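Running this now, will post back.
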Amino acid sequence: MIADVAGYSRMMERDEEGTHARMREIRAQVTDPAIHRRGGRIVRTAGDGMLVEFASAVEALSCAVEIQREMAARNRGLAPDSRVDFRIGINIGDIIIDGADIAGDGVNLAARLEALAEPGGIALSRAVREQVRQVVGVTLNDAGRHRVKNISEPIQVYTVALEGRPRPAVRAKRWSPSRIAALALIAAVAVAAGALLWTYLQTREDAPRQSLAVLPFGNLSRQTEGEALAERLTIELTTALSKVSGMHVIARTTAARYAGPKVDAASAGRALNVRYAVEGAVVAAGDRVRVLAHLVRTDTGAQLWSETFDVARGDDGPVPLELIGRLADTLRTQVRAAELKRLDDDGAPDAYALALRARMQMPHTETVEQIRAVARLYEEALQRDASHVPALAGLAYANAVLADRIHDETERAALLRRADELSARAVALDANDAESWGIRSAVLQHAHKFGAAFEAAERGLQLNPYYSELHGQRGLLLINAGRAEDALASIDRAIRLNPVSDAVGVHLNMRCRALLYLGRYAEAIDACQRATTSAADWPDYMLLTAAYAMSGDAARAAMARAELLRREPRFSIRWVRALSGEPAPRAAEQREQHLFAGLRKAGIPD
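Update: finished.
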């Protein structure tokens, strides 16, 4: 890859000192950082050019594109004689290694290509074009066959049109032998020497939906342990995100190439052909870990989200479970929100867009009409694609939740039957989708099929052990199995995985129930009170009424009972017994001894 400054001699003649200063600045701010980010090695420099070796054609071309884009931005608005324009040639071929230097036909052909490139342009050989069809928003144009000095056969040349605009990038001018000799000495040649291409890069528009790369986290600690902690965090976060339904995550070993403080996250993400990139740093201080994390949209470079996490180290390994869970859950939500914004800008929605919009709205529904509106979005998505798994699973869950809010028993039964059919079809179409298994478990639990629901939850957690909502669901099923102590461990794990998630109120309600069934009334009251601060509903006040009554606090039990009946006027012990189904014998005994006894004590009718 040869980078020669067009008109360099003229610039030096006019202002030697100023030209030297500009070239030093361009090297420091443009060319050298771009080469470093792409893993290139500067073999030698001479005046206005440099010879650079890369491990792959992708890296060489991506570097050239980055340099030319940056130089175009710098030149914008300048007079023609004040511009600094590079010509770049790239070839793949045999080379001779001479210590730190390289030479040979591969280098010579790259020099010829550079001589054919227009100022601000890039010229490629056929060998490069065969390996790199498209790179990061550029178009490759056939510039025909050209005869060049010291090569017997004409060479096929391809040029690069940045931002998709075709432009002539070869000059039909013959160069003197002295000019060619000079180019061989001073040209900057990027040679991808026989490396195999690891993947085809495509244009930004072709990057997969919800695609993401976790770039290596940096270490801001003084302690050497910070390096190991940063590496472990990168590994575990990549693993956790790769298990999120619908997320396309670049392998850690591939993303590891973009390490270091000078790496530009947006450029790295574009090179990896993803829509989003995560970057950050770790500070290890005693018994605490602080992580700074950012989410970047790679096509624009915009920072979509940034947060600092400060957590205590636990007994669950060098990276606290809470940290991985919160990061993974937050990034899942942020990426989906960013995808929704893209879709809003794209016009007519497809099944993916409709299902994603419904999925993002569902946690914020409170009324029956709001849930029906979400269900209609899912129905519309399925009209466009009857096999769209997120829409099938999402509609199943919406129907199951609706069934809990509907007074008409016939309609309730119909909703649960449809939820069962939809969720079964979702897991049949994609047996590796953890969220679909979580919804399948919830639907079966609503239908009082507790054993099958537990199996579905276990299957989902095997696929994604970081899925906090499913740990909570598992806890609820353990309560219904009469295993309240085991349920507490599962529910506490759900809360630890993300103590600030939308589902934390539900998890606290489950925790309250488990503690109530164990007769630990003061702890149950604390959990219920915390649950009521997050989208409180009648089940929170049902448990709170019983816990207060069983602890002997009649006044607060009466207040909780009043709020319970205000929120659900139909409430009675018989009504809630029919709604929740018949649990395992041990759970039925615990329910009678602690929940129903407490409700009767507070004055709730049978």
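Residues 2-192 form a domain with the Alpha-Beta Plaits fold (CATH 3.30.70.1230). More later if anyone needs it.
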